Amino acid sequence: MSVCMTCRGEYISSKCLCPFCNTALGDNLQRCRNCGRDVQGRRLCPRCGSDVAVWERERITLTKFLAQGGFLGLGPAFVVALLAPLWWGKNPMPAYNHFASILAILFSLAVFMTLFAIRYTLRERRWAAEVQTVRGVSSVYWIAGFFLLGLGAAMVVFIIYMLAIPQVSNPIANLSLMMLFAAAYSLASAGFAAGITLFVLEYDLRRLDQVVPQPIFMNTDRLLDVILSAVATTLSKKSSGQGKKSALEVVRLSRDESSGDVNLLILEHLGPRKSDNSHTWRVEADKWGRLKSMYPAFPPPQFSRRVIGGEG
Predict the structure, then answer these.
(1) Per-residue confidence of the chain (312 residues) as pLDDT tens digits?
(2) Which helix (H) or strand (E) covers residue 296, if one does?
(3) Could you give the C-alpha distances from 151 to 10, 32, 156, 187, in angstroms and in order?
(4) What gap in Å lies between CA 152 and CA 292, rounded to an integer?
(5) Do 228 and 196 belong to one domain?
(6) Same domain for 197 and 230?
């Protein structure tokens, strides 16, 4: 199964919906089996209705990221690899220089791959800050902080290599300085790699935002539709075999500022809306529309805001 990046729901390609008649496309993903129209490269998520085909085309793969400037994030590791045979061999204790070079390269590569692995988490966090309280600082400060870390560590490397090491004759002190040199050298390389990689990632993610749908938690109406659909499915399972048809009426909606969760008070009408045959439910869902809890609530409220499905 694939995962819709808009609502985080799983889907099967053959179950994707036609953008024209809103029915399942089937095995032929180019032409709808119901209306017969060419879908023009579009397929809608059966859960949230967003275009999943555009995500499949625009997904940031490692190859695409490297081709679009991500290779710059590997620059610090490349520089360290070049300096290892050209410069550090002049030191009277070259073994520690080789150790420092290897450590710096590994740290830089680890930072590069880690940031690439969490690219969509960074995008989600940036959008989530629009609808909920997100702890921490923006990526701009992180980029500046990484560059300052790299610059500061590079200054320590220069001081130790150019000033301290030639003046130290005590083997223990020399060993301590070399270990400090290795740590600072690794931090310098990793800091610059993190700053460059995060800068390029932010550029690519902002470009991506121009062509793919926003996360579903940015659109309360669409999020509410997904939650109500899940509630209706749950209620139909509870009343399976009883032949009951119900309409859902949302009478209260609130969102948690810290988590983005949605809290609903829902009326389930088992007959005409003006009748007394109704149940009240309290529903809590996360910002992706996944149900977290659902339980009866009493007494039924006396006002309404929204109705979907059923007969009224």
Answers:
(1) 789 999 999 998 888 999 889 888 887 778 888 888 888 888 999 999 999 999 988 989 999 999 999 999 999 999 999 888 776 655 555 445 678 889 999 999 999 999 999 999 999 999 998 888 877 778 889 999 999 999 999 998 888 777 765 555 666 666 777 788 889 999 999 999 999 999 999 999 999 999 999 999 999 899 999 999 999 988 888 766 555 667 888 989 999 888 889 999 998 887 665 556 778 899 999 999 999 999 888 655 555 555 555 444
(2) strand 291-296
(3) 44, 57, 9, 9
(4) 46
(5) no
(6) no
- Do the Cβ atoms of 218 and 127 come closer than 8 Å? yes
CA distance 44 to 19: 6
Q: Residue 214 falls within a domain, yes or no?
A: no
Q: Which ranges of the chain would DSSP assign to H, the alpha helix?
A: 53-58, 62-67, 75-86, 94-117, 119-128, 139-159, 171-209, 220-238
**Which residues touch 14 (CB under 8 Å, ≥6 apart)?**
24, 25, 26, 27, 29
State whether 147 and 266 are in the same domain: no
Cβ count near 24 (within 10 Å): 16
- Rounded CA-CA distance 312/303 in Å is 15
Considering the domain architecture, whether residues 64 and 37 belong to the same structural domain is answered as: no
> Cβ(297)–Cβ(280) under 8 Å?
yes
Instruction: Give the tokens for residue 186.
Output: 């690794």
Rounded Cα distance, 125 and 257, in Å: 14
